Amino acid sequence: MRIGEIAALVGVTTRAIRHYHHVGLLPEPERRPNGYRAYSVRDAVLLARVRRLTELGLSLDEVRDVLADDAGRELADVLEELDADLARQEAEIGERRRRLAALLAAGPGEGEPLSPALAALLAKAPQTDSPTAAMDREHLMLLDAAGAGGEEIYAALGPLAADPAVLALYERLDALVGAPVDDPRIPALTAELVAAVPDGVFAAIPADGVVVAGFKEALLAEFAPAQAEVVRRVMEAFMERGRG
Asked: How many Å apart are CA 110 and CA 119, to the nearest integer?
């Protein structure tokens, strides 16, 4: 058989066959005096097996292992490994679909690439035009994307997110734009913000923390001076409370 004939018989392209020759997966057959390759039935059987294995999802290196002599891997071993890999991919796809479902459920213009747990948390929060509330949301999204959040933390924050009284705290923080760092409103607002956070949040935070070095400074730089002073004090109080 010529290359076109064996390709038609097995159901592959001549280009694929030439590639298999190039990578050493399929031995080169003898050539006729006119220079054409002469393929045998044995070549067709081997090529058909290569096709079946690649259709199962095996890489060419894995196919080579299967086709090797007794020193190569057994087909059952390769297929078990492939099945485990497909199971992992299936789980990842399922998680991605759950995230997409949460985005679609949020409605046009409201969806963000969030974990389902954070999406559920933010859905509890009442609507507000507070700039600092919007910043808080963005910071949570950042930590979520970095894998520094967690279902336990978000669940513990649920009652706080759903509490309408929290909006008043955001509004008081908004009002500190343009105020000096020694504004007399800072201590009372700091104390109320610290008291508002449920104890369960601290129990859910890992012992090694949830943020990388430098995050605190970058976070404080987002705020006006008086607001940053409140946030700094709140963070320090949280650290003390977490150690307690």
From this structure: 11
Ranges of the chain whose pLDDT falls below 50? 70, 108-109
- β-strand partners of 37: 31
Q: Is the dihedral of CA 81, 85, 91, 94 positive or negative?
A: negative
Token look-up 């076109």 returns 4
Q: Where are the domains of the chain?
A: 3-69, 74-111, 113-243
pLDDT tens sequence across 111-158: 556 777 888 888 888 888 999 998 888 888 877 776 666 678 888 888
Q: Are 230 and 194 in contact (CB under 8 A)?
A: no
174-194 burial, b at 16+ Cβ within 10 Å, e below that, comes to bebeebeeebeebeebbeebb
Q: Which CATH number fits domain 3-69: 3.30.230.10, 1.10.10.10, 1.10.1660.10, 3.40.1360.10?
A: 1.10.1660.10
